Records
---
Amino acid sequence: MFGVWTFLYGLTHAVRKKRKPNLWVVFIFGSAYGLLIELLQFVLPTNRSPETLDFIADMIGSALAILPLNIFLKRVFESK
């Protein structure tokens, strides 16, 4: 899920700015979103509990989305 979210965030950012975004920033936003979800699970009264491994999985998903995003954006912006 976080891989897809990160990929779509990177595409949206590229379309708005009309240039290839800094992929580190895209990764950090994807990871920060995962951390926010885990913190909300700790604070809000739900039946879910925050887990470090969930956050690590979110970060891995975001990191795995960066490679195809980089390839796609490189092709798009080099063809122009």
---
Amino acid sequence: MPPSAQPVAAPAGRKFPCDQCGARLDFDPSGTSLKCPYCGHSKHVYTDYTAVQERDFQAFIERGEPGPGTIPGRSEQVSCGGCGAVVLLEDHVATDKCPFCATHLESQPQAAEAMIEPESILPFAVDYRKAKDAFERWINDRWFAPSGLTQLSSLGQLNGVYVPFWSYDAMTYTRYTGQRGEERTAGVDPMHDDMSIVALAGMSHHNHRHMEWREVSGEVHHFFDDNLVCASLSIPLDKVMQLQPWDLENLVGFKPEYLSGFKTQRYAVPLRDGFDMAKILMEPTIKGMCLADIGGDVQILDTYNTKHERVTFKHALLPVWIASYRYFDKAYQIMVNARTGEVVGDRPWSVFKVGALSAFLLALAAIILFLSQ
């Protein structure tokens, strides 16, 4: 902008206006700043690590859900009629399609419901261009994917979305009962059997092993740190697991500036239900510790009872690029972890490509058969 020009006044109510041209500043994943998509002006966002606080789980349960607040700058929400996702809209910004299933959002926005506000966030680190490149590499590695899929990213179908997660910490105390099996070797005792040395030598191969069992009980302790549970029901569980790992050690204090230019989903899994899911995720570790504590050669775990104490939680928003599309009336999702660039998802099979390969193989088999005669 020429030095003599005056900054354009930002429209009333607009969040994060550009000081130079008045347009909305969007968060720039290439740096911790807000950047104007029109004039390029940027504004630094101060990173606050001290704001990431563990919250007392029991205190929140006793006071009752939902929480008393909403996310600043996201005062409206709209529900998707296709997948049920509740998308929190930026103030004064409309959206026409659900980022999770590409269904047209026909319902009118409503006032955002009260919720437990997020206190931590992993900002976008992979920008649109890098996500698009990762998306295209993923598609190109799938030979039988329909050719039209490569156009999805070019058509702007990649949506940047902050997905809600619960993270739980807990100290666990587990009492168990079980059985310890130890292998023993049974042989002939020459002090008690009236046999010659030759006879004993000839019977040595009859020595056999058997299992001796003993009932045992005990207690194991373990501290679980950052057990992550996806609070969205719009992403299949297997895809949620494939998006991991997340660099939760780099969580920063929540600021609405990080959301600018991206969609945000409201959590669909309540805090209490999320912890029930977290306990299920803890079980394999707890059972493994009990079996290790039983010892012996073979272990049987009969019963175990776990107490979860000093439970704390965080409501964290994690960044994902999502491409949702339909192919022959079936919905598909492709997701990019916006911290690592990892791509996961489903893709349909191209009937034409599979048919062409089948025809080629049949023709090749016919030629080989003809030449062999």
